[in-house]
Amino acid sequence: MSLDDQAVRAAVETKPDTTNPKRLLGEVRPSGNLLRFNTLHEVYCSFLYAPSSKRVVLRAMSRLTLWVRAGSDGLRCGGDPAAHQLFMLMLWKAEKDPNLTFDVKTVNESRPPPEFREAGLRRAPALQISDDTAFNVEDEIMEELENYGPSRERASEAEDATADLFRTFAFYIKDIKKEPTALLGELQRIDQYLASRGRRFLAGDEPSHIDCVVLPRLHSIRIAAKALKEFDIPSEYSSLWAYMKNGYGLKSFTTSCPSDQEIHKECTVSSELTKRDHPLLVGSTRHPRPPVLKTISNSTSSAIVHAYRARGFGCFEMRSTPDDIRFGTAAIWGAPLEPSCI
Fold first, then answer.
1. Tens-place pLDDT, residues 285-338
2. Of 57, 90, 132, 311, whose CB is crowded by the most CB atoms within 10 A?
3. Second CATH level (architecture) for the domain 156-309
4. Could you tell me where in the chain the CATH 1.20.1050.10 domains are found?
5. What fold, for 32-42+63-151+317-332?
6. Those residues with Cβ within 8 angstroms of residue 178's Cβ, 6 or more apart along the chain or in another chain
7. How many other CB atoms are there within 10 angstroms of residue 38's CB atom?
8. Which residue spans of the chain are classified as CATH 3.40.30.10?
9. What is the share, in percent, of the chain residues with pLDDT greater than 70?
10. Is the bond leading into 81 cis (omega within 30 degrees of zero)?
11. CB 276 within 8 Å of CB 89
12. For the chain, what is the HEC assignment?
């Protein structure tokens, strides 16, 4: 009996209670217990409606896939901060909802696989719900992800404090703004907000939806601005650095984080610079994990890069709920997943 047949027979067909405002929940039925993000691992999603604790209705069977632009080697995740943001958000949701797992696939947009084209997709990041349902507009993807895991809680003050950060950075990196004055102002604004709140994350002591948006962008700013503009986030922004350190300790962040070189490349293409201008873009050194900032005094980007090059490349895994679903980042970075990996 196939997995689909078992799921259909196990479901109890009832008429949905349309007066119940509860949204559809996503339950994933993986074909194996190890989810490797860069493989064509089949993950079946059954959307269940639960009007009561004893009755469920099988709505559909489909595969939930996040497509992200491939890096320079055509296999690993690229440095697009939007893809990092979506990847981290889905991992964070999976930590909160044991029914949610997903497949992440990299794609070369100039030579996409048939399944990418057949879904009507032309660019990444994209979210594929089924063979004929997919989204490739970031706002639409974010809206669709509200159907899975914990819903977004509004954090208006945090949203206001971070609203202009990435736009200001884009102006600076593209030389629309020659001086970093505006970027410094936005970073200081976040630092002051964090200092006034006295919490580990933007909306509280636990990470939330908005942290999955802001942390990937802050990381891209820190890496790219140093490489392309010799710009360092000032060490006196102690609350901002403490926030970044807390973010770097999240498995959802480290698992989804692209390498430094891919972030350099992404921002270089955006700013129309060349590899000749920035030799750091040439090479195969990978920094899949962001640094652990011990103190403000030794947290400069150059010291961080040197420390991670000295340590060499490593791989690691995150264990989600339930325990038999493992998210192996070694698969993302193209290395075998071994028990000895850090």
1. 334 444 444 333 333 333 433 433 343 323 222 223 222 222 322 222 222 223
2. 90
3. Up-down Bundle (1.20)
4. 156-309
5. Glutaredoxin (3.40.30)
6. none
7. 19
8. 32-42+63-151+317-332
9. 60
10. no
11. no
12. CCHHHHHHHHCCCCCCCCCCCCCCEEEEEECCCEEECCCCCCEEEEEEEEEECCEEEEEEEECCEEEEEECCCCCCECCCHHHHHHHHHHHHHHHHCCCCCCEEEEECCCCCCHHHHHCCCCCCCEEEEECCEEECCHHHHHHHHCCCCCCCCCCHHHHHHHCCHHHHHHHHHCCCCCCCHHHHHHHHHHHHHHHHHCCCCCCCCCCCHHHHHHHHHHHHHHHHHHHHHCCCCCCCCHHHHHHHHHHHCCHHHHHHCCCHHHHHHHHHHHHCCCCCCCHHHCCCCCCCCCCCCCCCCCCCHHHHHHHHHHHCCCCCEEECCCCCCEEEHHHHCCCCCCCCCC
Q: Say if CB 212 and CB 92 are below 8 A apart.
A: yes
> Which residue's structure tokens are 């206001």?
160
CA dist 188 and 291 (Å) reads 21
**Gap between the Cα atoms of 323 and 330, Å rounded:** 18
Task: Look at the pTM and tell me if it is higher than 0.85.
Answer: no
Higher pLDDT residue, 228 or 241? 241
The rounded distance, in Å, linking the Cα atoms of 68 and 108 is 9
The identity of residue 109, as a single letter, is E
